[in-house]
Amino acid sequence: MQLYIPFRQPREYNRLLPLSAHAAVVVRVNNPSSNLSKIVFYTRMDKIAELQRTMNLILLIVLFVAALIATLFSSYLSKKISTPLSKLCAHIRNISERKFNRIQIPADDEILELVDNINIMVEKLESYDLAQKTFLQNVSHELRTPIMSIRSYAEGIEYGVVETDEAVKVILDETQRLTRLVENLLYLSRLDSIEEPYNFEVLDFHELLHYVAMRMKGIAQQSGKEICTKIEPESVRLSGDEEKLSRAITNILDNGIRYARHKIEINSRITGENNIELIISDDGPGFDTEDLKNVFTRFYKGKRGHFGLGLSIAKSIIEKHSGTITAGNTGEGAFIKITLPVAE
């Protein structure tokens, strides 16, 4: 088969067809019984050009329709994404103004996950904001009481309406109480801050318990009470800050001495999960139901509590050591249970 482009008609066909460019195809005929050897197929070039223009027009229309559909779809998709995000931005601005409201937005799974996380954040911020307000109210109350007492007795000394010895004793006691309160507040605020350094080192936890128990026995004996220890094995190692762990255990023992009738027990052992389980119990009246809910809450004081900060400090320290601390009652009194991981 041969292709000839362009092609002009033979002279004998000029009377039938106008003179113009043609495209022709010559096909050979392999038929011995026929005198026909070739067949020529040809058409005018202007027809091909017209077909080409038609195809170009169709393609242009298809391109326009496709672009229109793509524009509409992208506009719908962008609106579907931007509308929830705009609402979330407005909601976050409300949160910055301390308006802790929950938000519900119909959206896809990814946006819904973001909405759920923002609602969780709002709950925590609201809880923190409430705790901060309560904290400030309690601090102002705790600071106001000793300051007013000191001021009143100082004025009594100035005007000679109270005995000097009695006033001096009260002023010194209130000053000491105020000093302890401020120290505990500063210590607790440092524990909560990221900048507070923890000097972790491998130490003998049971040796630390013996040391703290020995130091607190004198305070217990002054109140007619006894500290008993049951520590097995004699030595167990963990990674921790010795000073802070010592303070946490001291606060718990101080709380036990305050409420115990006769004795405080320290029991420590290694559990099957390679954890140290420390239980400090007393034979006192135990925690009230309401106390158990708030025993580690800042400024929550029991019937004989001082500032409501000792157990809060202990909880913060234990949690920074990847441990847990809980409180409960036994048949004979109250207990504080601490779990800490053993050093690898």
Automatic annotation (TrEMBL):
CDD domains: HAMP, HATPase, HisKA
UniProt entry keywords in alphabetical sequence: ATP-binding, Cell membrane, Kinase, Membrane, Nucleotide-binding, Phosphoprotein, Transferase, Transmembrane, Transmembrane helix, Two-component regulatory system
EC supergroup of this enzyme: transferase
Catalytic activity: ATP + protein L-histidine = ADP + protein N-phospho-L-histidine
Pfam families documented for this protein: HATPase_c (PF02518), HisKA (PF00512)
GO terms of molecular function: ATP binding; phosphorelay sensor kinase activity
GO cellular component assignments: plasma membrane
Main localisation: membrane
Residue intervals of the HAMP domain: 79-130
Locations listed in the record: Cell membrane
Protein name: histidine kinase
Species the sequence originates in: Thermoclostridium stercorarium (strain ATCC 35414 / DSM 8532 / NCIMB 11754) (Clostridium stercorarium)
